[in-house]
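Example 3.2
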Amino acid sequence: MLPPEVQGVLDAIVDGLTARPAELAAAAAALLVVLWTVSWRMTRTVVTIAHEGGHALVAVLVGRGLTGIRLHSDTSGVTHSTGAGRGPGVVLMFLAGYVFPPLLGLGGAALVAGGYTSALLWLGVALLVATLVYIRNLYGAFAVLVTGGVLGAVATWAPPDWRAGFAAALCWFLLFGGLRAVRELQRSRRRRRTTTSDADQLAAITGVPGGMWAGVFGLIGLGATLAAAVIVFMP
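Structure, written as tokens:
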């Protein structure tokens, strides 16, 4: 038996799911895009942009020198910064990558639930413009421009219902996509296909095993997804 408080929250979410079919459809569409390998490969770069944007933003906030961001056609990316190789600021910078997409999704879900759909889309455009300034390769510039163009076009020309649905689906895509990216990281580490991931970098800096850091990424992403469900579907 679940505690009454937990059971009450779950019951409220279930009631909200049935009462909000449009929001449920947006979440289901985003989940399908993330789970279907073909669509995931086509859209994963959006999660990478958010991932590298998280590194870049925190690097600036902790006083590091941001020198550039590169996005690659295999959906990988790298953010270059200057400064000390250790310390809390570096830890926060490496931690930001995998947790930034779901946190963006959570913040966006709060804006959509509050009726600020247009503000969310234009905020996304503004963040992409800021990211574009630091892009240092052609594919990265193309990916950021296309993503920003789509957001701007929807914000400008889409009917209100379509705009709201797109914004909601985008938030869920960042939440679910962030979780899948962490899952891919964990699988790659188990198969020893990567030794330079954010989790490995954090392990080298802190002495805490990389697997534990990957678990932290996943827990934060899962927590953000559950919080978004409460915000959107709680009556």
